[in-house]
Amino acid sequence: MKKIIYLDYAATTPVSKEVFDFMKKYFTKEYGNPSSLHLLGQKALKALDFARNTIKELIEADYFREIIFTSSATESNNLAIKGLVFYYFFRLKLKPHIISSTIEHPSILEVLKDLEKLGLLEYSLVKPEKTGLVNIDNILDLIKENTALITLHYVNSEIGTIQKIKELGQKIQEINENRDIKIIFHIDAAQAPLTEDISVKKLNVDMMTLSSHKIYGPKGVACLFKKENIILERLISGSEQEFELRAGTENIPLIVGFSKALEIAIKNREKNRKYLEELRSYFLQRLKEENIKFEINGNINFSTPKILNLYFPLKTSQEILIYLDSKGIMVSPGMACKARALTPSYIIEELYPNSDRPQKSIRFSFGIETKKEDLNYVVKTLKQFLR
To answer: Do 201 and 244 share a domain, yes or no?
Structure first.
């Protein structure tokens, strides 16, 4: 049987046994609709309230109603941006300006493009430095009178860069003291909870996206934190679920699993970070010992240890991906939603313009199940192919 080594944890993670066991009864025993008034419905509502309150406490939000469950981080990002823009444009009759960066996830960049085509907003994008960091001053320089939102990833899904969210949030709060139109600060923190602090108070953010399947929870569920005083227009109309912001019956098993996965992630964050740092250091050491030619994309001093993006000058990403896959090693040329096209990474291109790096880079993302012997096998396989 072929050895299988999975190093694509930034794309998705398996559901942990503890999370799976916690979810099971909501599929088969306590399967009620939380909007129903009978006993099973009330049990489902109790589970929903418990999960929402768990997440509220874990991220240090102020109010229960500030947690809005969605189907994915993509939906949460859409709700944050479109919901705000629709409110400003259609209710306040103001065309808002939004600031972001050129290395965001497509669920940010494509939303901005779509809304601009419809004439509903204007937006500005900041280019990153070679480290992968977005310069805070460059963001602040773009602020206009009608700037209503700044949206950034917390941890980049391709190169792992951790943006200076806390510092930027503090600057925005200071600027807001003298503004009529307050700037709302949203972050996509889908990749963050396993290794980074996600306290919304410490980060100084107004809205935050989280995802279940990046942290050993089930796919198909995520949430948007938004401060209670922020008004969003809903994207899905119908009944009154999710405080009238997202109609549709809540998926109780997935929501419960998500809350448990987040609880475990935060509880084990320091242990996870230490272990993943050891793995990353060991992998880089082994690559160097075997004289494999590579360079690191971005700067690992500013990145999560679970994501490592490497440039291999001797082969293309496609060639490496296919070869490693034939040997049972699962990696990616970049974020999963773009990987199928096998197009060069626009994020690597932003960091290294006019180079061959976008065509010759591979993302390795480590998980808590990854072992050093797995990495030895990966290095051995790469050496065979890249010699």
So the answer is: yes
Torsion of CA 13, 14, 20, 26, to 10 degrees: 70
Query: In CATH, what number is assigned to the domain containing residue 51?
Result: 3.40.640.10
Amino acid 43 reads K
How do residues 286-301 score in pLDDT, each as one tens digit? 999 999 999 999 999 9
Alpha helices in the chain (DSSP H): 17-23, 25-28, 39-58, 73-86, 106-117, 136-140, 165-176, 200-203, 241-244, 252-267, 269-289, 317-326, 336-339, 346-351, 372-386
Residue 162, helix vs strand vs coil: strand
Residues 6+ apart with CB under 8 A from 182: 148, 176
Looking at the fold, whether 244 and 382 belong to one and the same domain comes out as: no
List, as one string, the DSSP characters of 285-350. Answer: HHHHHTT---EESS-GGGB-TTEEEEE-TTS-HHHHHHHHHHTTEE-BSS-HHHHTTTPPPHHHHH
Give the end of a domain, one of 267, 298, 318.
Answer: 267
Angle at which helix 39-58 crosses helix 252-267, to 10 degrees, equals 30
Beta strand pairing call for 184-188 and 5-6:
unpaired
Please check whether residue 109 is in contact with residue 98, taking contact to mean a CB–CB distance below 8 angstroms. Answer: no
- In terms of Cα–Cα distance, which of 185, 192, 193, 198 is closest to 80? 185
CA 290 from chain center: how many Å?
A: 33
Q: Which residues have a catalytic role annotated?
A: 337
Number of domains the chain contains:
2
Distance CA(384)–CA(387), nearest Å, equals 6
- Number of Cβ within 10 Å of residue 228's Cβ equals 12
Do residues 74 and 173 both lie within one domain? Answer: yes
Q: Domain residues for 358?
A: 5-14+269-386
Element (H, E) at 151: strand 147-153
- Which residues are paired to 69 by β-bridges? 223
pLDDT digits (tens, 9 = 90+) for 353-368: 999 999 999 999 999 9
pTM for the predicted model, two decimal places: 0.96
Residue bearing tokens 């974020």: 335
